[in-house]
Amino acid sequence: MKNDFSVIIIGAGVVGLSIARTFAKHNLSSVLMIEKEEDFGRGISSRNSEVIHSGIYYPKDSLKAKMCIKGRELLYDYCIQNKIKHNQCGKLLIAQKGQEVDLTALYQNAKTNPIPQLRIIGKDEIQSLEPSIQADSALFVGCTGIVDAHQLMSTLKRDSENAEHNYLFKSKFIQAKSLELGYEISIENASGIIEKTSADWIINASGLNSDIIAQGLGKSQKLNWPQLQYSKGEYFKLSSKWRNKFNHLVYPLPDKTHDSLGIHLSFDAMGNTKLGPSAHWMKNRQKDYAMDKTHLNHFFSEASRYIKGLEMDDLSPDFSGIRPKIASNDHSFSDFYISHENASGFPHWINLIGIDSPGLTSALAIGEHVGKMVL
């Protein structure tokens, strides 16, 4: 018996939409997108720095390195072709006195990946590029930029809809059952009614819930796939006097304890500047987006190390996001998990788990990567 769809994608964030766009490019119209929120991109994809990353931080041959480097190139091309707001502004990864060894190590890692438009600069050039920044040395990364994430996702959805893909919003995945070919999945719709549909392929791109949905195959045993832990990041915005003050993104050295890039400075297309994210491990997978105003002191302390003339009153709470990181005892580097689970006995089921930063940058490359598995 023929299934209802060729492919069902669970999750309409930037990664799910990029996968759908790949199918649209190949004229595959029998695609259903399932999203538990009332619209696309309401989760991780809308709560981040909107940075187009270079790929300097990730171990050579890791999925994050491969997808980020390829995704960055695809993303710039896609933005130009579709007139999506973006700015290849470059960034300064700064080091203070005593941090030169760590900066050099990042430079060497970046060269092995390899990353273009890269050089170490001294204090004088930092002052020339960014008069409001104080640092002893910096890694200049010219291929970094920013993108309007909402406009990007809107354009990806347009491509998908032009291929006559179907969308179900306010629809929650319940479980899946293996069929002779493909899967039958149960969905709770917006009215609380359980509906069933089927597809030859299931792609689990559900972000914060991806590990839970991966366990929803109706089996009694726990499958040996990654489990997530949540890291919450908060952002504080700077007052209007800092608008258009900076020409480049500014990053401190990474916070290895929290697998985070540290309290960095970024801005949007209008020049509005924000600081963040911080990184706090969340107990029991809490989805708490409330801002903690008591963290203002921490943000000010970190940012005032490199922003000249910053005052406490310049900072105010902005928003927060939660990153899905693959669980480990020491919170060390966690790579993307992208797997066709054929070897586990689930052919035509693809899991994407732990797609945190640089997920936005990598999205188009991930879309092509997953598309090849299916097509």
Walk me through the structure:
- The chain has 375 residues and is of the alpha+beta class.
- It has two domains: 5-46 and 151-227 and 333-374, FAD/NAD(P)-binding domain; 91-142 and 229-326, 2-Layer Sandwich (D-Amino Acid Oxidase, Chain A, domain 2).
- Helix content is 25%, strand content 27%.
- The strands form four sheets. Strands 1, 2, 9, 10, 11, 12, 19 and 20 form an eight-stranded mixed beta sheet that branches. Strands 13, 15, 16, 17 and 18 form a five-stranded antiparallel beta sheet that branches.
- The chain is elongated and about 70 Å long.
- The model has no long low-confidence stretch (mean pLDDT 95).
